Structures are given as C-alpha cells and as structure tokens.
C-alpha cells in the first residue's frame, strides 16, 4: 500500500537555486516513483491522499487507518 500526497510541497527557497521548473519536475518524478513503488507488488495499490501534504498521517489520519485495515484484511 502506497499513500501519496495530493498537495505538493512548497517550492524551495530561491537561494537554493532550484527553479520553479525544477520543482515541478521534481514533483512529477516523485509521483512516478510512487506509482512504481506500488507496482513492485502484484497486489500493490496506490492511493492519493486528497487534501494531504507530505505528513499524511497528520493531515489525513483517517486514510492511514483505512489503508492499514485494508492491508490487514487482505492478509487474512
């Protein structure tokens, strides 16, 4: 089970030299990697946590609990 954020992280500070285009590409690659991670298992599943940023367990604990319950049920 892979839970992915729906709200991208804020842009890096300009002094780090990361352009908005770089930041956008970073997010695209991150989302692709999340999908690849879920695909590593024949039973893998990816869910997008609507309304959540990186801290899904803080932003949407209900989705984390649901995912844990679904994995536990599938294991039975």
Spatially, the strands of the biggest sheet line up as 1-2
- Count the beta strands: 2
Q: List the domain count as a whole number.
A: 1
Principal-axis shape: elongated
Structural class: mainly alpha
Would you mind describing this structure in some detail?
The structure is a single chain. The protein has 76 residues and is mainly alpha-helical. The chain has one domain. The protein is 51% helix and 11% strand. It is built from three helices and two strands; from the N terminus they run E-H-E-H-H. The protein has a two-stranded parallel sheet. Strand 1, helix 1 and strand 2 form a beta-alpha-beta unit. The two termini are 15 Å apart. The mean pLDDT is 94.
């Amino acid at each position: 089970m892979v839970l992915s954020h729906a709200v991208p992280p804020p842009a890096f500070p300009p002094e780090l030299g990361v352009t908005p285009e770089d930041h956008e590409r970073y997010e695209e690659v991150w989302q692709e990697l999340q999908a690849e991670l879920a695909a590593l298992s024949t039973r893998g599943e990816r869910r997008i946590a609507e309304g959540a940023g990186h801290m899904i367990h803080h932003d949407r604990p209900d989705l984390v609990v649901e995912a844990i319950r679904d994995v536990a049920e599938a294991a039975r």
